[in-house]
Amino acid sequence: MNVASAPPSATPDTAAPTLRLSRPDDWHLHLRDGAALASVVAHTARQFGRAIVMPNLKPPVTTAAAAVAYRQRIMAALAQSVAPGQSGADFQPLMTLYLTDRLPPDEIRRAKDAGVVACKLYPAGATTNSDAGVTDLRHIDATLEAMAREGLLLLVHGEVTDSEIDLFDREAVFIERHLIPLRQRHPGLKIVFEHITTKEAAQYVTEAGPLTAATITAHHLLYNRNAIFLGGIRPHYYCLPVLKREEHRRALVAAATSGSPQFFLGTDSAPHPAHLKEHASGCAGCYTALNALELYTEAFEDAGALHQLEGFASHHGADFYGLPRNSGHVTLQRTAQTVPDSLPFGAQAEVKPLRAGETLRWSQLN
Ligand code: NCD
Ligand code: ZN
Predict the structure, then answer these.
(1) Is residue 266 part of a domain?
(2) Does residue 204 belong to any structural domain of this protein?
(3) Backbone φ, ψ for residue 141 (5° rounding)
(4) Residue 278 in domain
(5) Residues whose CB is under 5 A from ligand 2 (ion)?
């Protein structure tokens, strides 16, 4: 990918309202690897100062050395996509390790020294590339203790994988069965409940105290589960955890716009080749990185809460991670734009962004 394939900035319209925010961060992102990485990294870099990069590659990122090597590949892809001085050139990936039953506690020390900021817990089999995930949380208590000691955060994909539990109930059951006991065993660990999708999760986080936080995606703020079936099956609205009922969407909007520092932006932008989503067994993941800020702005505007967007997008996450807030800014304008139908993805494929071919009310100017 080259500079030209980054999305064009909107033409300023002096009459339309604008919104200036401290440069935001994306606290949950899938960048992939190789040619796919090169196709998407500029989209995130244009909008966000930093991003927490998920480690669910094939094979997963399970050592400090692998995280350092992945970070170098991301920086090389960025340098190919964004010219020095151009918006996004100073983007910083924040690296994570993928927890397995066998990640040794001493690797946590090496990870900390290598600049890794968090470890991701995927219950084995919960989602894309999670086969090597943790089969029983009690297997990793020593590693979690090392993380609390070193100040690494635990990022949780909070869904049970038990096939007897209804797909739509997997997050709520995870809280009762796993998260509450985990929180009790490790009271000093910072935990981010990733991409929450239910009122139960929003309530749990609100009541769990200042060392527990949650990320919320733009698509879970904007859509309920009807979006997956509107006029026919719509694979580009299928992600994990799956979209839930309207009452849950409303609870997420209330949490995101509440001003609570426990809730912050994490897109969970998860690109897949379009042909593997439009498939008999389609992959889970929504590609939102192209216009993530515009999507969040719509959701906050619909809730009458644009004044809360900067805290959610630019302050709360950095504060929770114990990192400085970004110094730059982004400006959005209330000027409509049309989302492209598709974008190149790797050598052969294409990726379809969420809302492909449809209109967004806001556009990023810089
Ligand atoms: C993610 C992916 O494709 O890597 N998919 C998704 O639906 N969110 C994995 C994940 O975060 O669950
Ligand atoms: Zn994810």
Answers:
(1) yes
(2) yes
(3) -55, -40
(4) yes
(5) 268
In this predicted model, what pLDDT tens digit does every residue of 19-43 receive, in sequence order? 999 999 999 999 999 999 999 999 9
Which of 56, 128, 171, 195 to probe ligand 1 with, by most ligand atoms within 8 A of CB?
Answer: 128
The total number of structural domains in the chain stands at 1
Residues with Cβ within 6 A of ligand 1?
A: 30, 56, 127-128, 157, 239-240, 268, 270, 284-285
Which tens digit of pLDDT belongs to each residue from 39-60? 999 999 999 999 999 999 999 9
Tell me whether strands 337-338 and 50-53 are parallel, antiparallel or unpaired.
unpaired
Cis previous bond, 105, omega within 30: no
Domain residues for the domain of 110 are 24-324+332-364
* Residue 302 annotated to the active site: no
Tokens of 98: 């993928």
Give 51's strand partners: 26, 93
Count the neighbouring beta carbons within 10 Å of the beta carbon of residue 148.
18
> Is 15 part of any domain?
no
Q: What is the mean pLDDT of each run of 10 residues along the chain (366 residues)?
A: 40 81 98 98 98 97 98 98 93 97 95 98 84 88 97 97 96 97 97 98 98 99 98 98 98 99 98 98 98 98 98 98 97 98 96 98 94
